[in-house]
Design a protein that fits this description.
It is a single chain. It is built from 24 helices and no strands. It is mainly alpha-helical. Helix 3 packs parallel to helix 5 and helix 17 runs antiparallel to helix 18 (about 240-255). About 40% of the residues are buried. The longest helix has 14 residues, at about 20-35.
């Protein structure tokens, strides 16, 4: 079909009238590959097809084509499409693509459009780091629409993280929307301000587990040595996801307390924790863990053996060469590899 479309695109376009959604989706996929301007424009009406797969293929065809003004306008309209998949494809395309006047088409949507239009424009302009959007986005930080407010915070942090006023960060940390608290926690990693580490530690026991996880990750990236004891306490209280996040963070922070705690993790009954411990503690570069790694090279669970191999490699531990040679005879091919 693609070969036919390259030579006779109108023949292919005619099949878009098919009642079979599989045929329509296939034709749209081929038209995207053909990438002839009038062939791609024929895909635009199918953004609103009754079939989800047809809508998705139409949006992909437009997103990956050579753009003209009509196609750009269609993608701009699609950023507020009710179909999440279509919306996501359009936003991603406009973030990465370049078209004359694209930003000028999006900025008016920040001022006088419906929430879906505004959210779509904010997503695109935020991810593009468009500085001109900053004052318009800032105006939506107190919007009653939860989704619009969250999109505004995320965009503001993406556009000018270093210039966001501390008052906005403080408001974001206490917002009722967990997505805003998470976005604020991530923003604090880039900011050297007084409230940073203390504010993140306050989120460690946030009622929303995903917020706690982001706070842990952020403290790890900040190498917050003052947070080690509290992270260890959270490990003891938390579920598996929290424990794995803490383990990774302690590997980033390092220090004697973090090392001692991670070293005890070699004895954890959970294979997942032991795997995370080996990845984290190897970053310290301390060869005293090699005996523990050699034990784990014999572990009955192959993912643990692979983690041990990775840690030995990280340390370039010559003491474990014979153990690695033995693993060439492992029962699992992935371990042998």
């Amino acid at each position: 079909l693609t070969d036919i479309g390259r030579r006779y695109p109108d023949e292919l376009i005619a099949h878009l009238k098919s009642a079979d959604p599989m045929i329509r989706a296939t034709v749209l996929r081929c038209l995207g590959v053909v990438n002839a301007p009038h062939a791609v424009r024929a895909c635009i009406p199918f953004l609103n097809d009754e079939d989800a797969n047809v809508r998705q293929q139409a949006s992909i065809a437009l997103a990956t084509s050579t753009w003209d003004d009509e196609i750009v306008n269609a993608l701009v309209q699609a950023i507020s499409h009710p179909d999440q998949e279509v919306r996501s494809i359009a936003v991603s395309a406009l973030v990465q693509g370049n078209a004359d006047g694209l930003v000028d088409k999006l900025l008016p949507k920040l001022r006088d459009s419906s929430p879906p239009d505004t959210i779509g424009a904010i997503d695109v302009l935020g991810q593009r780091g468009e500085d001109r959007a900053f004052p318009y986005v800032e105006a939506h930080l107190t919007d009653p629409d939860d989704e619009l407010r969250a999109a505004s915070y995320k965009a503001l942090y993406a556009i000018r993280p270093e210039k966001v006023p501390q008052s906005i960060l403080e408001a974001g940390l206490s917002d009722a929307n967990p997505d805003i608290r998470k976005a604020t926690a991530r923003c604090l990693v880039t900011r050297q301000i007084e409230i940073g580490e203390a504010a993140l530690r306050a989120l460690l026991r946030d009622p929303d587990r995903t917020v706690s996880t982001v706070a842990i990750e952020s403290l790890g990236k900040m190498k917050s040595t003052d947070s080690v004891e509290e992270l260890i306490a959270i490990f003891e209280e938390g579920d598996m996801g929290i424990q794995l996040a803490v383990t990774k963070a302690l590997g980033q922070i390092q220090g004697e307390k973090a090392f001692d705690f991670l070293y005890r993790g070699f004895e954890d009954e959970s294979a997942d924790v032991r795997i995370a411990v080996m990845a984290a503690i190897a970053k310290f570069g301390d060869l005293q863990i090699v005996p523990e790694l050699r034990k784990n090279l014999e572990d009955p669970e192959w993912p643990v053996r692979i983690a041990a191999i990775g840690a030995v490699e990280e340390l370039a531990a010559k003491e474990a060469i014979d153990d690695l040679i033995n693993r060439l005879e492992d029962d699992e091919e992935i371990v042998q590899a």
